[in-house]
Design a protein that fits this description.
Number of helices: 13
Number of domains: 2
Strand content: 5-15%
CATH architecture of the largest domain: 3-Layer(aba) Sandwich
Radius of gyration: 21 Å
CATH topology of the largest domain: Aspartate Aminotransferase, domain 2
Helix content: 40-55%
Structural class: alpha/beta
Distance between the termini: 29 Å
Shape: globular
């Protein structure tokens, strides 16, 4: 699904040159290298301020903390995402209020959000799933009408854009992840919050270091959400390559569309290719809908083709969220997606021959299935 070793070999000298000064300085927590990373990522995302944090999960958590969101508050989000999206809300005592997804893009159904707003709603957290931005125009319109905070979960979408705006640049906060498998990954956990507001940036910066102002003086209770300088150094070295890597992912996605398109047109009941409504999709994942997904996946694995399922169970059906009172059937589009989504390798180190091999192997499996239905 991803070849981090190949990526590392291609820029090894740049990584080593970035990391060596940090090791020599023995300054591993915050400091000038982190500040350089914060400025560079914020500028890349089209924001004035960046605050490096310990993970994409903690980016969501501290952004919500900065708005004082907690017990008794509701936060509207998608029911089809990585666990951290809703987990951050629950950790603060807030209640996630789930919306179904657009069946074509897998992103939150932006027009369903309005119906979910109550007196207790404080924020909306849209997720730019698989690297495609959600319909932020509609979401921002709802947020403005009801005076709600918008926190973009852009963990998979750094470098993506829609309607002329970059991922992370249109909400009150944008949250990114530098987990190693992300399009821009470090050598461990890391993340960043970006914002255009000075006061919000200051609150996040204070909260990421136990709420400390200066000299062990604490005005509020925060957490230990600091970005390590070593991770920042790796991100600094990789960031100049991100546009090229994203272009390579889009090129691989286009080749899949070309190779698989005819079969998908003739057999829409067996294969549905991903819809792209963004100017720049980062294709963190290339996700198709496939009938009898688990059988197909097993055959691909036997043929040496690795795939992924993101995600096999929607959030509203997770056991830990049972207290929210949801049942199967509440969000049909998300539930259907969980049954049939399959991610094919699409990373930037993937060559054309490998994409062709994956597509041909998949077509062989699906063609056999079409004859036995």
């Amino acid at each position: 699904m991803i070849d981090l070793e190949a990526q590392y070999r291609s820029i090894r000298s740049e990584i080593e040159a970035a990391v060596a000064p940090v090791v020599a300085s023995q300054r591993f927590v915050l400091g000038p290298v982190v500040e350089e990373c914060e400025a560079a990522v914020a500028a890349y995302a089209g924001r004035r301020f960046g605050i490096g944090v310990s993970s994409g999960t903690d980016a969501l958590l501290v952004a919500l903390m900065a708005e004082g969101i907690g017990a008794g508050d509701e936060v509207i989000t998608t029911c089809f995402s990585f666990f951290a999206t809703a987990g951050a809300m629950v950790r603060l005592g807030a209640t996630p209020v789930f919306a179904d997804i657009d069946a074509k893009t897998f992103n939150i159904d932006a027009h369903a959000v309005e119906r979910l707003v109550t007196k207790r709603t404080r924020a909306i957290v849209p997720v730019h799933l698989y690297g495609q931005m959600a319909d932020m125009r509609a979401i921002l319109e709802t947020a403005r009408r009801h005076d709600l905070v918008v926190v973009e979960d852009a963990a998979q979408a750094l470098g993506g854009s829609r309607d002329g705006a970059r991922a992370g640049s249109v909400g009150h906060y944008g949250c990114f992840s530098f987990y190693p498998t992300k399009n821009l990954g470090g050598f461990g956990d890391g993340g960043m919050v970006v914002t255009g507001n000075h006061d919000r940036a200051s609150r996040v910066r204070e909260l990421r270091a136990h709420g400390e102002g200066a000299g062990y003086i604490h005005r509020v209770v925060g957490g230990n959400f600091r970005l390590d300088a070593l991770q920042a150094a790796v991100v600094n070295a990789k960031l100049p390559h991100l546009d090229d890597w994203n272009r390579a992912r889009r090129r691989n996605a286009s080749l899949y569309n070309e190779l698989l398109g005819d079969f998908a047109t003739r057999h829409p009941d067996l294969l549905e290719l991903p819809a792209n409504r963004a100017e720049r999709h980062t294709f963190h994942q290339y996700v198709a809908k496939i009938a009898r997904r688990d059988e197909v996946r097993a055959e691909l694995a036997q043929a040496g083709v690795e795939t992924g399922v993101y995600y096999p169970l929607p959030l509203h059906l997770q056991e830990c969220f049972r207290s929210l009172g949801h049942n199967k059937g509440d969000f049909p589009a998300a539930e259907r997606a969980a049954e049939c989504v399959l991610a094919l390798p699409v990373h930037s180190e993937l060559g054309q021959e490998q994409v062709v091999h994956v597509a041909d192997t998949l077509l062989g499996v699906l063609s056999r299935q079409s004859r036995t239905r």
